[in-house]
Amino acid sequence: MLKHVLRVGAIILVVAIAIVAYMAWPDRAALSVADVAGTRPTLTEPRVQTIPTVGTAKPVGWAKGETPTPAAGLAVKAFATGLDHPRWLYRLPNGDVLVAESNSPPRASGGIQAWVMGWLFNRVGAGVPSANRITLLRDADGDGVAEVKLPFLTGLNSPFGMTLFEGQLYIADTDALVRVPYHDGDTRITAKPELVVKLPGGGNHWARNVIPAPDGRTLYVSVGSSTNIADNGIEAERYRANILQVYPKEKTYRIYAAGLRNPNGMVINPITGQLWTVVNERDMLGSDLAPDYLTQVEFGDHFGWPWYYWGGYRDERVDPANPALQQYSKRPDYALGPHVAALGLAFVGDASLGSRWAHGAFVGEHGSWNRKPLSGYKVVYVPFGATGFPVAGAKPVDVLTGFLTADDKAHGRPVGVITDKTGALLVADDVGNRVWRVAAAAGR
């Protein structure tokens, strides 16, 4: 018995040493983030990983007086502080701002994957319980700081996306789309949320977003995959890795577009009138693959997940294969770089930041965990042309950086981005527990 115990102990020790050795020399990027960004990104051969490269930024928060670094001609300050993991933002017609203070719901325990994900969440500051709350922020005196902070709606289940539609506020919980009555100027909602449709929950990619469709009678709802590459079988991904089209009066939905591993930010392009989204692509193909992306989405589109990425590159890990889908896998419009974790998305719209930022889209990049060196952890701008598509050859332009320290610790991590009533850009920082406001610098 003792020999058996010693033998098992030796095996465990060898495995542990092997894992430590692997973690000490993980896959490193051969290309810059910019190389894997733009309308024609450079794609390397995949470097398939059994044990993932793990590169995380330990959260350290913001010291008094510290702020992110804005681009030249811009200025930044805190719009609101003391929040609890603020993820998503929505501006009401009267200028009030709603912020979803939210996090992943409790995850199923057991198994090495669950253990690894739990470790990662704790490591990057995402292991805190979800506040399950929407908070109202109001800047009544117009000084760029919200002096009013009130609990607007509580008792939700990992809320994320919010939108007004036909006199009601719709909230995308992790497992349901719900709604409550709203009247202009309301500072608190006490009505019990009404269920519109149930949504698939559990697994990875818990955040759901919702926006009105251009037809005036339906809503778009994004639902990310439950695993990296349908690791539990494609049936476990039913109605996931999709953008759904919801009919709120009928309380039904259909798949609008598929093959999007984890779509988050969604907006209607003001020039084309079409739906655009940002998507987190797959992990464990190496530090250079696959690029997260920004793209237009039309009814019936399929972007390839889990079988293909970037318009037809096959992921050999997915079994069974789906060769019939390859020629129909839509290529995204614009790559944002590998593992940047693009979440927030806002077109310029009514932003007033100066001519440099007049025609394009802002993207909140939450930051990588599966890349060496780190990528993301900033807000970028994608220039668009007169046709309503990204400028060919243009790379993402930094708008707000400084979320990482020189030794790769995280002051914060940007998520949702919107414009406020004055034309400034608001950025939710879920690790820094605040909302930043980016405006044109004085005299610009």
| Shape assignment | globular
Strand order across the largest sheet: 1-22-19-18-17
Percent helix range: under 10%
DSSP strand (E) fraction?
25-35%
The main pleated sheet reads as: 5 strands, antiparallel
Number of spatially distinct domains: 1
Describe this protein's structure.
The chain has 444 residues and is mainly β. The chain has one domain (34-39, 54-440): TolB, C-terminal domain (Neuraminidase, 6 Propeller), CATH 2.120.10.30. The chain is 8% helix and 34% strand. It has 2 helices and 30 strands. A 5-stranded antiparallel beta sheet has the order 1-22-19-18-17, with no helix packed on it. Strands 3-26-25-24-23 form a 5-stranded antiparallel beta sheet, with no helix packed on it. Strand 15 (242-247) and strand 16 (252-258) form a beta hairpin. The longest helix has 23 residues, at 2-24. It is globular and about 60 Å long. It starts with a helix and ends with a strand. Mean pLDDT is 93; it is low at 20-24.
In summary, what is this structure?
The protein is mostly beta strands.
Protein topology:
Layout: H1 2-24, E1 37-38, E2 58-59, E3 69-70, E4 74-80, E5 86-91, E6 97-101, H2 112-123, E7 133-138, E8 148-153, E9 162-165, E10 168-172, E11 176-181, E12 194-198, E13 208-212, E14 219-223, E15 242-247, E16 252-258, E17 263-268, E18 275-279, E19 291-297, E20 308-309, E21 313-314, E22 334-338, E23 342-347, E24 360-365, E25 378-383, E26 397-401, E27 409-410, E28 414-419, E29 425-429, E30 434-440
Parallel strand pairs: 2-27
Antiparallel strand pairs: 1-22, 3-26, 4-30, 5-6, 6-7, 7-8, 9-10, 10-11, 11-12, 13-14, 14-15, 15-16, 17-18, 18-19, 19-22, 20-21, 23-24, 24-25, 25-26, 28-29, 29-30
